[in-house]
Design brief:
Elements lengths: L1 H43 L45 E3 L16 E10 L20 E10 L8 E10 L5
Antiparallel strand pairs: 1-2, 2-3, 3-4
């Protein structure tokens, strides 16, 4: 009887420890994901919405900007912009800090950035209509999604998402 009681107690302790380790792992990944999302936000805080030379006449990265480290305005992060004026977004892999340094020690982590123009008249929760990125009166909604793909995972898992609005100059 003593063996059964002690064995049950040991199993309960092992199960509790395993649960703690799993929750701790999730907590660390969640905090790291928000850190990486905030790094992109901090990078963009001082950037103009459009290129200082071309303005809104050229959306997406300019021809000499081939990597995220070279982006100098917010609309560069929209990626390739379609005829309808919508960007496809960019994926930063390995992730990047606000100082434009790649974090090569973080394999499996990626930052996915999308930039969308939203008319001021449509800023209500859950009812975002999009407008072309060239709309000078629109707000820019920037979304950063951070994914982690472990060595045995078939695809990345969304760990954190951060969204904010950027206002056009003079508004």
């Amino acid at each position: 009887m003593t063996t059964v009681i002690i064995g049950t107690g040991v199993l309960a302790i092992v199960a509790a420890q395993q649960s703690f380790v799993m929750k701790n792992d999730w907590s660390q990944r969640s905090a790291l994901g928000m850190y990486l999302a905030n790094e992109v936000r901090e990078l963009m805080l001082t950037m103009p919405l459009h290129d200082p030379i071309y303005g809104a006449s050229h959306l997406g990265p300019e021809t000499d900007e081939t990597t995220a480290e070279q982006y100098d305005d917010v609309d560069d992060f929209a990626g390739t912009v379609s005829e309808a004026g919508q960007g496809g977004g960019v994926t930063i892999d390995p992730p990047m800090t606000a100082l434009r340094q790649r974090i090569t020690e973080m394999p499996g982590w990626t930052q996915r950035v999308t930039v969308q123009a939203v008319p001021v008249s449509k800023i209500t929760p859950g009812a975002f209509d999009l407008t072309p990125l060239s709309d000078s009166s629109a707000l820019y909604r920037v979304t950063v999604e951070v994914y982690y793909q472990g060595p045995y995972d078939a695809e990345g898992t969304l760990i954190a998402e951060l969204t904010w609005l950027m206002y056009p100059p003079g508004s």
